[in-house]
């Protein structure tokens, strides 16, 4: 029986992928094998030694101590692209709200008073305060052309916008999906200088913290709009508030309210709603639950943010060893030598690496005794070892 601890509400559709006969799932559970999480901050949590994997039912993993988990030989999985459409739609809503002054207009309507005749008069007199602008011909700069950025850039092109994109590490798959009408910016500064709307879709990393700051805001076209549905720390709130006060920025649309932004009439903030649709919650939970299940039951790794992709079919009757080790020379040699010493025949072997981590799957024709397991576990550089019994 595998034990799964949930740190946030995870869609039942995803939890159903962990069959009750072999999985116990609860928010409070002793010695969990894996943790399922959304945005709960795990940095200050004590993560039990029993944890073999962490599944993020979403995209961003900045709430998870990924580097520390790598050192412990624990993969962190996420659900790439599973909530991208939900975020794209909310960004488009933000773009339109800013262009047409919709929140201010709705607020005006709420305050209307009098009989219908008086209301109509106030409407016709007042509407001139909310004159907006249309999107065709306007420029949008998308920083980060990943799952969300590509979808947004393509839709904006369809809406008639001139779209610039910047991403120094775009994947080939995303490059294939990007509309050829999206123009390449040469740098963040180049993109900022060209764009009236700027939308950030990068992960929170040291390199992206404060990506939109006072200096960059000065490069922007006058009356621009910043959209931030990535992470609060990527945009400097205080610099934004100053640019709004100076009238150089028209609006800041974001998913991350803060005290600095609160009450500012030019800030449109939603409460971290980017991925909050039934569809996205289901997609993320299903994807990550399936990945965790496959890792726990077979040792395969799909969509990990710190482990290499490692997928090898496990044939009936074979015992599988999964070994996480430092990515240094002679690890596979030492593992196979130990197996040979115990007269164990290797049926199949896969060794993959990513950065400092290497991951080896070894399928053996027979059962594996405790002595050889202890011998492999004692090899310097082995971080984690599991035996998956033959079925
Ligand atoms: N508001 C929400 O609810 C919500 C929902 C989903 C994702 N997010 C956030 O959005 C981020 C992006 O999500 P995604 O699914 O598109 O991720 P993704 O991994 O598919 O795409 C991120 C892209 O950013 C690029 N990138 C990294 N550093 C960069 C830099 N310095 N400059 C330019 N590009 C850079 C990467 O190469 C990658 O292509 C997530 O990491 C998460 O923080 C927020
Ligand atoms: O990175 C993400 O996927 C989003 O920020 C969504 O977070 P949530 O799962 O807490 O809604």
From TrEMBL:
Domain (ACT) ranges: 320-390
Record-level Gene Ontology MF annotations: NAD binding; phosphoglycerate dehydrogenase activity
Enzyme Commission (EC) number: 1.1.1.399, 1.1.1.95
PROSITE patterns per record: ACT, D_2_HYDROXYACID_DH_1, D_2_HYDROXYACID_DH_2
Keywords annotated in UniProt: NAD, Oxidoreductase
UniProt xrefs under CDD domains: ACT_3PGDH, PGDH_like_3
Reactions catalysed according to its record: (2R)-3-phosphoglycerate + NAD(+) = 3-phosphooxypyruvate + NADH + H(+); (R)-2-hydroxyglutarate + NAD(+) = 2-oxoglutarate + NADH + H(+)
The protein's name: D-3-phosphoglycerate dehydrogenase
Lineage per the UniProt record: Bacteria, Pseudomonadati, Pseudomonadota, Gammaproteobacteria, Nevskiales
